[in-house]
Amino acid sequence: MSKHPAWRDTIIAVVVLIIVLVIPLLHRSPAFEDFIIRLSAMALFATSLNLLVGNTGMVSFGHGMFYGFGAYAFALTMQMTELSLPVAAVIAVVATAFAALCVGAICVRLSTEYFAFITLAVQMLFYSIIISWQSLTGGDQGLRGGIPRREFFGFELESQLHLYQFCAIVGVLGLLALRHISVSPFGQTLRMIRDNEDRASFLGIVLWRARLSAFTIAGAFAGLGGVLAALFVSGAYPEFADWPNSGQAIFAVMLGGIHSFLGPVVGGMILLALNDLVTRYTEYHGLILGIVILIFAVGLRRGVLDFIKLIRLGRAR
Amino acid sequence: MTRTRKPGLSRRSTLALMGAGAATFAAPWVARADSKKLMIGMQSILSGPIALLGTSSRNALLMEQDRINAAGGFLGRQIEFVFRDSKGQPQEAARLARELVNTNGCELLVDAEASSGAFAVQEVVRSLGVPCIHTNSETSSLTADPKIRAPTAFRVARQGVHDAVAGSIYLSGYANTNKINKWATCAPDYAYGRDTTAQYLEFFKKFKPDIEIVTEAWPKLGQPDFTEVITKLIQAKPQALFTLLYAGDLSAFVNQGNIYALFAQMKVATPNVDYPVLAAIKNLPAGIQSATRYLETFPDTPANKAFGEAYLKRWKERPTNWSWQNTVAMQFYEAAIKKANSLDGKALAAALTGLKINTPFGVDGTITMRDDHTTINYAIGWGQTTPKPPFIVDVKPSDWGKIIEYETEWKKQQKYI
Questions:
Q1: A147 CA to chain B: closest CA distance, Å?
Q2: How many C-alpha atoms does A103 have within 13 Å on its Cβ side?
Q3: What does the pLDDT read at residue A6?
């Protein structure tokens, strides 16, 4: 292990960010740019879920609600106020964190199975509220009218290039923050709770407090992913907060690897690329996606990065 | 020297995998560079329970593709559609619209999404500035609300407010003739059902102030069993029922209603009868008051009949309302491109605004694209069902003068103008 893992991670993040930002200066490809914008949202969404699933052992089926909450909070703030875009984004993330804190306060003390059920139940409740509160959310037609893209620090997000740069920066910085949380003493504590909660408890760790903190942080980052998604589609839709969207994040985590920090990012890439490719050729996309997931589940029995890690460990021995 | 095979992925297989991946991702870009054809993107719901929306739109567009190419294409270029399935998800609809333009190199868009998808596509069109015609969204605000209207996006589809005015005028006359005051309503429990029912009732009460709504039923979309809805309606003893159920829900409701003799106990009115619905109903009761979404015999012209027959011959099924709307969208593109001599978004928008075309689906053989980017003068009529073809008879065309008069009043109420 490196002497200064925090610096190593930061340097990797900066290098990746520079590469991503330089690519459009050398060659413009709107399709690639769209892919990175969507991946930024998906990566934050799935990696934040993995903070719960992989790090803490809390399988949440309702994570999509925070993704949707972030998208709606941001879009509504932009539509109803004259605040600048970064301020609206911060408000959306803080509001989502508060929502996650409230939901977490109910859920985190429950055992694994009931925790999973109750997160799903709360998500369905939140989804129903979006559908029913038509005057605010636009109901099942979504929040229409577009999101005003007020200029800030020279960023004009009407421009595809600026939107790409903004999403790439937010995505990479968000992932870096999640990485630091994951390897911090707090992250180690979460892993200890996952592996042996009794031992963690005997060591004086207040389990519910640590879990609630993890749940709130994960919710906030999912909300940040929702902000990027709202910018991409210029609106917010109830599907963001519906259970199939939570399923997407779970698939991304499982496909990429639950025990690797970048696993959900790789899983998200696979899911998005699969969706984009398969829908070009067939209407039976669900069938193809099911087969691919089956291959991973039955064939590799783990996510891609976990599989590669296993092979490298095998070689080292 | 012997070489042992190490476990795991070899360098060669890794390179092969990367190569295959790169080739797969590069394919669309290569295809784009290779093509001189004019690509037109079409997105809709092509899978799931309401796939008929997309498939009957696609069928019509393929017929138009053949016709236009046989006539020399657009600006001398042959046209080719790229079809994509949004699965009815608005965020996927937005993504696809961008992909069609950015990756597939589509220069024109035909957005055949249902309303929620159409609103998502509208925002993408606004930011890309690409020409787009929405062909299936009936929600009036898409083009009526100036905040939502986009400079290069137009709508070629029937509109909720037009249908509500036309239907209310017809039904108030029918209610007066038959002395019907007690009504029940039954509509799917989501925005379309609730909003459109409210809009119909608003106009209905304007034309016949003494109506009374004795019960309302809100079944879920795609609900398989309507027993509780049917018994609720029968128990309320209305003189007539107004329903906005559509597609499979409407045929299931009529089939199940027949078992309870619902149609013998009350008059029924619906604006949503289409050929595939009729095909799915086992015993179509006579005398349901029905609007014509698409009917070969209305307008009763050789051109309209020829369209219906050609569609039936090619696809072995009859066209839907969505089929004619997509056909007219291509007719508008054809006329506008000829007029503008360009594919540029702004030039086409200028050409489309106020454009009047000859088409079999206009009430007088023409349809006009109004300056608020939506069509008027398409065929709207009301008649009554009969169990055998032509299925709807005694069709009375709606008065477009009245429709526009009350639409303008509604737009003022909504502060759109």
A1: 9
A2: 33
A3: 79
Chain B positions touching chain A (beta carbons under 8 Å)? 6-9, 24-25, 28-29, 46-47, 51, 84-85, 87, 89-91, 94-96, 98-99, 101-103, 115-116, 119-120, 122-124, 126-127, 139, 141, 145, 147-148, 190-191
Asked, for residue A69, whether it belongs to a domain, the answer is yes
- Whole-structure pTM value: 0.81
> B189 or B323, which is more confident?
B323
**Predicted confidence (pLDDT) per residue in A138-171, tens digit:** 888 788 777 888 888 888 887 889 999 999 999 9
Average pLDDT over residues B333-354: 96
Please indicate whether, in this complex, the C-beta atoms of A234 and B124 are within 8 angstroms of each other: yes
Residue A106 lies in a domain: yes
- A122 in a structural domain: yes
Q: What number of other Cβ atoms are within 10 A of residue A12's Cβ?
A: 14
Spell out the alpha helix ranges (H) of B282-320: 302-315
Domain count, chain A: 1
**pLDDT top residue among B27 and B73:** B73
Phi, psi of B296 (to 5 degrees): -65, -25
**CA-to-CA distance for A216 and A214, rounded, in angstroms?**
5
Could you give the angle at which helices A304-316 and A263-281 cross, rounded to 10 degrees? Answer: 130
> What part of A 52-111 touches B (C-beta under 8 Å)?
none
A277 CB near a chain B CB, below 8 Å?
A: yes
ipTM: 0.73
Asked if A133 has any chain B CB less than 8 Å from its own CB, the reply is no
A284 part of a folded domain: no
Domain of A43, in residue numbers: 5-242
Q: Which class for B232: exposed (0-12), middle (13-18), buried (19 or more C-beta within 10 A)?
A: middle
| Helix then strand then coil, % of chain A, to nearest 5 | 80, 0, 20
Taking only the tens place, the pLDDT of each residue in A195-214 is 998 999 999 999 999 999 99
Domains of chain B listed by start with CATH number: 13-158+299-377 (3.40.50.2300), 161-292+380-413 (3.40.50.2300)
The beta-strand segments (E) located in B49-89 are 79-85
When pLDDT is cut at 50, 70 and 90, the band that residue A216 belongs to is very high
Rounded (to 5) percent helix, strand, coil in chain B: 50, 20, 35
